[in-house]
Structures are given as structure tokens and as C-alpha cells.
Amino acid sequence: MKIGLGLAAVGRPGYINLGRAADLPAERSVEVMRSRAHELLDQAYAGGVRYFDVARSYGLAEEFLGQWLWGRPEVDDVTVGSKWGYTYTAGWRIDADVHEVKDHSVATFERQLGETREQLGDRLGIYQIHSVTPDSPALHDVELHARLADLAAQGVVIGLSTSGPEQAAAIRAALKVKLFRSVQATWNLLEPSAGPALAEAHDAGCVVIVKEALANGRLAVGEHAPGDAAALAAVLAQPWATVVLSGAATGEQLASNLRARELDADPVRWRYLAMPAAAYWQERSRLPWG
């Protein structure tokens, strides 16, 4: 289950990956994006991918994945992970002022869990709080933890994703809660700061899922970029990584991403690319939705 497929780039018309204008057709209707998502899911499954990642804030990604699963009853060997805590607000527009709104309250959890269940039913395997930071109330909300424990008792793995320059602190705070059994974090050749904390999460028995391995395309394009396969291979080489997500938006990208499994990468070769975490996240915050 080493490479997974995330549907953030194809669950909604706007996203922050570089080169997106060329990745997707000018018409990005629901049907066009549904078709692209299903094509990628077919290709990924045929290529051995068995982990699929969605979120409530990824537009219609949960719906697209759920429909794909219901149409293929023979697909019974995959793990589905989703996330709650952001509400999609762009209204299927690329030029929206606000694309998603964050709220980690119990009320939002209850509402979004119902919405996720409506789309994914009992196929939901991992449910994560979306984008936890060290000051997130979700780390200390006793009522929320009780609701999450109830969901865990139903067989769903409870986890969290992290973002921002203090990912390591958020991960370590979550490990103290003794509730979270999965961690999804950004780790790539530009932003490796969460590595030691992710190793601790792995040693504590958590599923470790790596997102943004290509730094929203910054490691895939450009004269000095290592390229997508090499950048992904560098993440696959980390002994603590359980799943490394491909965020491919085209079949060609996915095929190239999957070639990372054939490479014997030496991450040390690219260590000069690492940036200070604060600088990385500041640069990421300036990427336009396109």
C-alpha cells in the first residue's frame, strides 16, 4: 500500500498545483471532472494502487470515489481515507474569493461525518481531522474526542492531517492524545522538517501518509527540479512512510508517478533543495488557485 492516489486535484475545478491550466480541459463541469477522476481511479487500481484519499473540502471527490466504488463491486481490497474540518465554499468556481472554510467543532464533525457516510458508506477506513496545527482546539476538545472514540469503536481509524511550519509540534501533540492512529503530513525534498516527528508516529504504530510529495508541482517542473518520479522515490525511501500520495491530474502524470516504485532513490542527493519550513509555507501560500 505504498503509493496512494489523492483526488484533491480532480475533485473540484480549482486547485493550487502548478501547470493546472494544461492538466485539465477548459471546460471543468461536474461531468468532465467526474470522468477524469474515474479514469484515474481505474488506471491507479490497475497499477496496483490500493489507497485512495479524499476530503469533504475536495469539492465532489467523495462523491466521485463513492460512485466509482459502487460501480465496481469486485474492488474490495482498497482502503479509503477521508478528512473533515474544512467546508468547500467555492461553488464549483475557480475564481472564488474563498475556496474552503476551516472549523474543527463537534457540530462540523457530526455534519460532515453524515455527509461522508452518505457518499462512502461503510467503505470509510480512515477519517482524519483536516489540517491540525499546534493551537487547534481539536487536540484538546474532550467532547470531540469522545465522538471520535465512538467512531473508532465502529472500526474506523481516527487520524489527523497537518499543515504549516509547525507540523512536527502538531504531530507530537497528537501522539500524546492516544486516540489518533494515522497522521497525514507534508514531507518533500523542499520541506522535510516533519520527518523526525513522522518517524516517531510510525514507531508509535500510526499509519503515516505523506501528502504534497511534489510540493504542488514545484518538484516536478523547472530546470533544477528532480522530476516527479525521483521526488516521489525520495519519499518512498523513508522507512516511516506507509503511504505516499500521488496527486496526479492526468493519466500521463499518474503513470510517471508510479514509475517512482522502480527507482532506487538516494534522498541525500537532493538535500540541498531543503528550505526553511517558514519560507516553504509562505511560498506555498502565494500559489494561485487555477
TrEMBL record:
SUPFAM superfamilies: NAD(P)-linked oxidoreductase (SSF51430). InterPro entries: AKR2_Oxidoreductase, NAD(P)_OxRdtase_dom_sf, NADP_OxRdtase_dom. The lineage of its organism: Bacteria, Bacillati, Actinomycetota, Actinomycetes, Micromonosporales. It comes from the Bacteria. PANTHER family: D-THREO-ALDOSE 1-DEHYDROGENASE, NADP-DEPENDENT OXIDOREDUCTASE DOMAIN-CONTAINING PROTEIN. Residues 31-224 form the NADP-dependent oxidoreductase domain. This is Oxidoreductase. It holds the Pfam family Aldo_ket_red.
